[in-house]
Amino acid sequence: MNTKVTIAGVELKNPVMTASGTFGSGMEYEEFVDINRLGAVVTKGVSAVPWPGNETPRVAETYGGMLNAIGLQNPGIDLFIERDIPFLREFDTKIIVNVAGHTIPEYVAVVEKLSDQPVDLLEINVSCPNVKEGGIAFGQDPRALDEITREIKRHAKQPVIMKLSPNVTSIALMARTAEMAGADAISLINTITGMQIDIRSRKFALANKTGGLSGPAIKPIAVRMVYQAAQAVSIPVIGMGGIANADDAIEFLLAGATGVAVGMMNFHNPYATTEVIEGLEEYMEQNGVEDVAELIGGVKE
Question: Which of 78, 183, 188, 250 could form a disulfide with 162 if both were Cys (CB 3.0 to 4.6 A apart)?
């Protein structure tokens, strides 16, 4: 039984990985998860300089999920290189670094510092607000997405995954834009913009007013968008958004994803990633699936 998949020339032992921002770099989860079992660890977003994040409160529970407005708090690329990469190198898993920035030069600065580092893939978070364009996310404007993808590809030494925002009119257009600009793969979906109001205090649940909705509540939207994106491009697609168990992960594979990422569920169940891997293996065995590739895009029309 073969669970290996290849994304942009990089072979993963299985298609299951962590979603950025929900697993740190694995240090907090080491006692719960055998990191060696994961196809890849996708790190929390890292920026050129330390980011303090947004004001609190910045997390709120919702029906079937959570809202977060953390603001990509992170210690910056220099500490990340010094501390996180050596930690991850101790394990038999692939390393995917999520890159964040407010301007293209900020992204490029991180990409260049990673050029000689032993990491396997870069995931570019284009849901960051583009301060040069009045705050709209790079991933919500096809022209901005095209520009940032081309510029990062000019500097990157590792294959580039563009992480797409679902807060768009046509995900297929954004997927094609990323592919035509040179992306080696795409990942989706990032969180959906949401809001919650406390009716007793009559205040916003988040200091930022809005936040990113993640968790099982968004899964049907994510599956639809992954299917549409996979139909639109020939590069690999990594699917995420509400994966809680192996059944959810298999649904994304059938929709066309080559890899799947477990996100919010890591907070609810720290064993989630390995449970998904075990469940996938069990499903393949019970259904006579010799190679996980048989599942990818296998939904029947």
Answer: 183
pLDDT in tens, 82-124: 999 999 999 999 999 999 999 999 999 999 999 999 999 999 9
Class of domain 5-294: alpha beta
142's tokens: 């096809």
* 128 catalytic per annotation: yes
Taking the complete model, does pTM exceed 0.90, yes or no? Answer: yes
Find the catalytic residue in 60, 128, 162, 249: 128
Give residue limits of the domains in the chain: 5-294
